[in-house]
Amino acid sequence: AAIKKYQFDVQVNNVSRLCHAKPIVTVNGRFPGPTIYVREGDRVLVNVTNHAQYNMSIHWHGLKQYRNGWADGPAYITQCPIKTGNSYTYDFNVTGQRGTLWWHAHIFWLRATVYGAIVIMPKPGTPFPFPQPNREEVILLGEWWHTDVEEVEKQGQKMGLPPNMSDAHTINGKPGPLFPCSEKHTFAMEVESGKTYLLRIINAALNDELFFAIAGHNFTVVEVDAVYTKPFTTEAILIAPGQTTNVLVQANQKPGRYFMAARPFNDAPIPVDNKTATGILQYKGIPNSLLPTLAQLPASNDSEFALNYNKKLRSLNSPKFPADVPQKVDRKLFYTIGFGKDSCPTCVNGTRLLATLNNISFVMPQTALLQAHYFNLKGVFKADFPDKPPKPFNYTGAPLTASLGTSRATRLSKIAFNSTIELVLQDTNLLTVESHPFHLHGYNFFVVGTGIGNFDPVKDPANYNLVDPIERNTAAVPTGGVWFMHCHLELHTGWGLKTAFAVEDGPGPDQSVLPPPTDLPPC
Ligand code: C2O
To answer: How far apart (Å, rounded) are the C-alpha atoms in residues 395 and 429?
Structure first.
């Protein structure tokens, strides 16, 4: 194992897209930011120096930070922000994971421009469990706004209304030729006939689940969220914000130019965003003048594709890739996902929209939860998050618009170290329906079942897949510390669709967490 060191200089740079230049926050002046390239078993040291006039913190999305929440990154959850002019070194080991993950700013909406890939190669001499690709490529999908993203966010918070949709989607930071002034901002990937390519696809968009496809070429899905899958072939993938998907593509078509395309999947009854980002897959030796072939994507509201696609994701569970699927549960949690309202004198109509788990909208604390937990600071949070919603009802029946007395509070749930938790996430018809990509920090979870309608506590558990469920970080309870769980749609996170778990090894000071590093940013 090696020690890999990176220097991240957070700064403001002018970047021009869609005929406008604007200042954006970057790492090392790059958009998207640099790729972290490591091997399983390595120790990684990333020194983040903040030169920008914004508070900053960086999250290593999907990395299991064993006993080491101090390096996880979400602001006010595991650390206070790195202030202007200050530095913090994220120091962590890459243990038991290989594949594609990513890093991003974890404060306000700054991840709109502050993000990059993490590529973890297997240990030396360990091949991939699929045909070795000739070459690989990182594909970061994102969103672009004309306006400053912090302004867009504030608008959404203050008015209690969704902020404007982004002005473009992007592939490796580039919208592609379907957008104005974007011809030269087109991502192109050159391929040679007969060769195989591994695409490491990451959805870094703030608020959109995306379909992604390449005209004329099938994908073989081999990994999601740094977990190998049973390979399957598909014409398009579906990827939620926070998720990663590795696919193999063979350059087996007539040499030419083929569009790759990304466009939102949206099953909510809100204005449909049909903006398509495009890039080009170009066979070697083909002139740029040849018009590319268009890519076909599922319809924006194709929820059947979504359901079937997600059902195809299975782990490689086998003696060689043991998945360690828990066969019994120590504790059951049932969380409803909904929206609520609360009064807000400065907002339109005097009300503000809130997003809730068990009818509670999470309020960000002023002190990091992990510090409060580790040093036993009182008054920062209450560890009384309810295991069940206030009252059971038909969650998915007719839309429920009545006020449910939604509360706002910093409440989290205490979980015993080394215990196995069953968590049912029940989407509801409270104000509106929408698909929510839930992300758990510090751990992966097994998706043992998914379906439409109300969870049935008798029938549904009988159908759990305890054989080869996919393991994800965004859809076994863990090491000690405090771990954030939230919807990876930034809009919903901002409205309170989040909570945390405090994992403890017993009464008294939590020995399962290592002591904090000396340069941890003070609150
Ligand atoms: Cu990718 Cu809490 O984040």
So the answer is: 6
